[in-house]
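ok so I'm stuck.
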Amino acid sequence: MVIWEAAYRIIGWESWKFPSLFQTITSFYDGFVHGQLLEAIGGSLKRLLIAFMISLSLGMLLGVLFAKFKAIDDTIGFLVIALQTVPSIAWLPFAIIWFGFNDISVVFITALGATWTMSISTRTGIRNISPIHLRAAQTLGTGNGWKMFVQILIPAAFPHIMTGVRVSWAFAWRALVAGELIADGAGLGQLLQDGRGLGDTALMLNVVIIIAILGTISDHIVFKRLEDKLLVRYGLEK
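replied:
not stuck anymore, here's the structure
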């Protein structure tokens, strides 16, 4: 904080270019008192959670299909790898044409930003399971159905799946903010755009700080703890 304030005074830029620490804190306080930041956080989290649940469900389904069926993996799987290289924001013009300036467009590109990563992680996790372990499970009476999927495939593929969940969450965050920059309604991305239009860099910096804090909390407190608990539950870590 001392470095921040010192940099502000030494550089000597106007406050609309680079806000001081005091201006940023004041803007942060006003944003919460008047509810502007709270409304934006609520709107963004709502869109993010909807899109993230869609991406997890669709991504895991695709990953299982890619791992179990070579024909699907060689066709759709190859296409998914190609699509993963395309930034999700590139689909925003299509989303606007198809759905308009609304939440559906934002949810659409946010889900796209996470689905491909989730599907590839699930596929990799299942494909890396040793065939010896699968045959041993079948010999012990697990079979090839739902019991095999729940008791063997998912636990064995869990490290890759959990990595996919954490990376997908990060990708979803990036896509969400990018989509909200031009979407209607309350959201952190829209608030960032409003700050740019008003020349309010303190507000813009508040949004960036909030995104960083929420991302850090969700990854280290939620996903990291969940990962540790499930690893212990499945006997993959003591």
